[in-house]
Amino acid sequence: MCFGYAVAQTPIQGIVFDTQTKQRISQVYVYNTANDAGGYNNTRGEFTIAASPGDILIAAAKGYHADTLVVSEKRIVLFNMERSTRWIDEVSVVARRSPEERLLENKRAYSTAYSKGDAGSIFSVGPTGAGMSIDALYKLISREGKNSRRLQEIIEHDYRETVIDYRFTPDLVSSVTGLRGETLVDFMRQYRPSYYFVLSANDYNLAFYIRSSLVRYRQNPAALRLPPFPSAEPR
Fold first, then answer.
1. What is the C-alpha to C-alpha distance for residues 193 and 200, in angstroms, rounded to an integer?
2. Are the C-beta atoms of 124 and 130 separated by less than 8 Å?
3. In terms of Cα–Cα distance, which of 38, 30, 33, 41 is closest to 5?
4. Which residues are CB-neighbours of 210 under 8 A, at least 6 positions away?
5. In 41-187, which ranges are E strands?
6. pLDDT of 32-50, one tens digit each?
7. Which residues contact 142 (CB under 8 A, 6 or more apart)?
8. By the 8 A CB rule, do 213 and 192 touch?
9. What pLDDT, on a 0 to 100 scale, did the predictor assign at position 31?
10. Distances (CA, A) of 7 to 14, 54, 73
11. Helices and strands per DSSP (H, E), number in the chain
12. How far apart are the first and last CA of the chain?
């Protein structure tokens, strides 16, 4: 996004970063005190502003302390902004269990399944030397062991889904998209992010994903919608 230029000044490019996360920040207002020019950076955290060496630039954004720098001879400037408020664990705010707490609770409740489903090492070492562990082999081939491992898979799958739900919440999606009611539910069902994306994404990445998904959703609201279950034909 280009800002207004002043006479005898050249465009200076810059990027705004979060000091702690090292991620780019958008919606930052950059202001040049020398020529009274200013504007917001783009979604990639980048901006262009008219400035000369010695000009003072100020960057301000909601939730961050304002940052100030003096323009040098370089044509690129970098802002590193610190948060004005410290993020706290969401579970302490809304009094709900975190995915990790839920996983530990399930492991305790189904501890027998974990012990029976874990085959451990197939090889064992005894007084006569190394050999095959009969108990481990039994757990691998027995129906009880297979059922226990299946239960473990269900618990792990539940954990991954809980991690997604913990961040991809209706309140967040509604605040970003403005969707409500059944439309919100339909959108979240079609554009539910993957577990590995949620693990690696910060808040900015997640919000960007939601906004870009909203564009695709408005273009075709049924693009990823699952077909309805076929109704039973009367005999």
1. 11
2. yes
3. 38
4. 172, 173, 176, 177, 191
5. 46-51, 56-60, 67-70, 76-81, 123-126, 129-132
6. 888 878 888 998 899 999 9
7. none
8. no
9. 87
10. 20, 16, 18
11. 9, 9
12. 65
